[in-house]
């Protein structure tokens, strides 16, 4: 059910809620009313699958992007690192064998994973409507390139998120977001104003010279896909994760 892929040379994983009816099944977030012991257990399981620790975020719809590098080794113990209070984390694994993976949790917002071609510098970004409109994707790409050079080849994948046919918003909000992200302008399948955030993200990343061929929308709309968590479909839902690990 989970989707595995390679981004540059970096292995990535997009989890799913899976079949069943429980709102919190396979939930990976600590702030949605789930039993913390269950969440920590699932996170530890994810670390075992990846064979390394995972950095988690306390996401706040900000545009803050942090960098974790070899100087942070030993800052945490065990499989679960963080949480870092930000909405994007870059892991610079150069000269850091066994560097951790990094995860973003979502249910309708966009999980965006980034990697340099060599897979040695990776990032996970939480791009909801506010973060995306505020420029968090541009910020994350800038942080990657500040580490690896302005000409660094960057690959991105946009994981499953709510689509433009489903993400209804007031007319005024659609107009506001479309001023900076024209591709976000959309209409729901029932004819009202909406936002197409995956399209807006693709447009922004392409404009930054992120390899467009490598920007792959995997999976379908969260709201229309019962095996994925969707806040718009079920406000009591859990969160799935997008996780990316460095290539070493
Ligand atoms: Zn949809």
What's the total helix number?
5
Q: How many structurally independent domains?
A: 1
How much of the residues is beta strand, in percent? 25-35%
Span between N and C termini? 25 Å
Bound molecules: zinc ion
The major sheet is characterized as:
6 strands, mixed
Unreliable sequence segments: 213-217
CATH superfamily: CNF1/YfiH-like putative cysteine hydrolases
Total strands: 14
Instruction: Look up the CATH topology.
Output: CNF1/YfiH-like putative cysteine hydrolases
The H/E string reads EEHEEEEEEEHHEHEEHEE
Mean pLDDT: 94
Q: What structural class results from the helix and strand content?
A: alpha/beta
How would you describe the shape? globular
The level of helicity is 10-25%
Q: Rg to the nearest angstrom?
A: 17 Å
Q: Look at the structure and give the CATH class.
A: Alpha Beta
- The spatial strand order of the largest sheet comes to 1-2-14-7-3-5
Task: Explain what the structure shows.
- By secondary structure, this protein is an alpha/beta fold.
- Helices cover 22% and strands 27% of the residues.
- It contains 5 helices and 14 strands.
- The protein has helices spanning 36-50, 129-134, 136-148, 171-180, 197-207, and strands spanning 3-7, 10-14, 54-57, 65-68, 80-84, 88-92, 101-106, 110-116, 121-127, 154-158, 185-187, 193-195, 216-217, 240-244.
- The strands form 3 sheets. The protein has a 6-stranded mixed β-sheet, covered by helices on one side.
- A hairpin with a 4-residue loop joins strand 8 (110-116) and strand 9 (121-127).
- The chain binds zinc ion.
- Zinc ion binds next to loops.
């Amino acid at each position: 059910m989970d989707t595995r892929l390679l981004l540059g040379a970096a292995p990535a994983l997009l989890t799913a809620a899976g079949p069943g009816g429980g709102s919190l099944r396979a939930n990976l977030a600590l702030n949605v009313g789930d039993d913390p012991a269950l969440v920590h257990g699932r996170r530890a399981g994810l670390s075992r699958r990846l064979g390394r620790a995972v950095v988690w975020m306390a996401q706040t719809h900000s545009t803050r992007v942090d960098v974790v590098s070899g100087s942070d080794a030993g800052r945490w113990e065990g499989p679960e690192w963080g949480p870092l209070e930000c909405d994007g984390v870059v892991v610079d694994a150069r000269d850091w064998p066994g560097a951790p993976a990094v995860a973003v949790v979502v249910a309708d917002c966009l999980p965006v994973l980034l990697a340099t071609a060599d897979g040695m510098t990776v990032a996970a970004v939480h791009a909801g409507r506010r973060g995306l409109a505020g420029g968090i994707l541009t910020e994350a790409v800038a942080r990657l390139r500040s580490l690896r050079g302005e000409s660094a080849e960057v690959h991105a994948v946009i994981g499953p998120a709510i689509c433009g046919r489903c993400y209804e918003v007031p007319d005024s909000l659609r107009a506001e977001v479309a001023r900076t992200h024209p591709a976000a302008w959309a209409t729901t399948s029932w004819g009202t104003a909406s936002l197409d955030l995956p399209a807006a993200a693709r447009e922004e990343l392409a404009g930054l010279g992120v390899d467009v061929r490598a920007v792959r929308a995997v999976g379908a709309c969260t709201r229309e896909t019962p095996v994925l968590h969707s806040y718009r479909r079920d406000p009591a839902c859990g969160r799935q994760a997008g996780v990316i690990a460095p290539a070493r």
